[in-house]
Amino acid sequence: MTRRGPAAWGHVRTPPAPILVLHGEPHDLGRQHGAALRGQIHANVAALLGGYLTGDRGPPRELIQAWQRRLRTFCLDHWPWLAGEIAGIAEGAGLDPDLAELLSFRAWQYEAYHAGACSSFAVPGPDRRILTGGTLDDPRFLYAIAQVQPRQGLRYLSFPLAGTAWANRGLNEAGLALGISSLLCPGVKFELGRLVPVDLVFRDMLQFCETVADVEARCRKYDFFCNLVAVDRHGGVFASSNYCGAYTSYPATGPVALTNHPLEPAATALRERGYTGVEPGAYSPERLAQLSAWLAAHAGRATVSEARMLLGSGRRFGCVTNPNTAFATIAVPQADPHTLWIAQQPVTTDAFYAFDVRTGSRRD
To answer: Could you tell me which of 134, 158, 127, 347 has the C-alpha nearest to residue 257?
Structure first.
């Protein structure tokens, strides 16, 4: 019998990301989500909430419960549809409703509010049309890829953690593209009495915002931590560091890139809150330097093909795409407001597929 090893397989392309299509009223969205991802959701509960369930780690249970009550009141005041969706997730997944809430409210990061190390950028391409893209760097097994068709608001495509009502980087049918990068701030004391889960703010942005002006209004309204880059179909660009109660916006008249540390003057503002410097081991300055060099070389001529080369050529620590990269995305909202290019891990140059954010179907 002849054995066929890797050399005999030829080139194997990373398959397209599986798209979970959700539609209907909030409870319907949640129930479909929960039923489709039941096993993954229970695995996420074990991985992320297990220490709180057993009491082996985390703050005392009564503190978490008080924090959960505050967030329930705040979130349901601002986003009342969340109640039905979280209840639907619990029903569909066969999960205790309190656990479904704790997932969407990020209980495992009660005292350390940040996530993976992601990169985001925007750059003018031919005819000054803005190309935007970046990476989601976090364990791939935690996430789903959802195309959401809500009864109220805009259709969009994003990457929720399975079992949550989240969104993060993505694109909606209005042609608004969002890029998120965790803002890692060693030494900063988190104001737990006012902090809002950033993933729920991004869900609000993708479902209800159409322009970068709408996004900036959310930055003024909600207290959350992250770096973000937003691009709309009109060529608007907004980039900011948001740090629970304040934000710094950066000039967006040319190329812009953000990784996981604050730039000036945000860094100075955060030092007043105890910020001690760049997070060790996150490779944030290295990734920013790589992006900045690429943006400088490609400003005015950046294309999807060239962005695929950038995002598909790394895969080592210190690169924009690295072993922690779960997904990479590219969009050009002015030229094509409804197409999001997505590559899932392992991200290579030819791992990108085009998806219609209105339907979740392949476009390539």
So the answer is: 134
Residue with tokens 């990020």, as numbered in its chain: 106
Of 28-42, 168-182, 242-256, the poorest mean pLDDT is in: 242-256
Sign of the alpha-carbon dihedral angle for 31, 32, 38, 42: negative
- Would you place residue 113 in the very low, low, confident or very high pLDDT band (cuts 50, 70, 90)? very low
CB 299 within 8 A of CB 291: no
The structure tokens 């109220």 sit at 152
Examine residue 97 and say whether the peptide bond preceding it is cis (omega within 30 degrees of 0).
Answer: no
The tokens of 277 are what?
């410097």
With 0-12 / 13-18 / 19 or more C-beta atoms within 10 angstroms meaning exposed / middle / buried, residue 249 is: middle
Q: Which residues contact 275 (CB under 8 A, 6 or more apart)?
A: 185, 186, 187, 188, 262, 267
- pLDDT, one tens digit per residue, over 329-347 is 999 999 999 999 999 999 9
Please state, in angstroms and rounded to a whole number, the distance separating the CA atoms of residues 295 and 284.
16
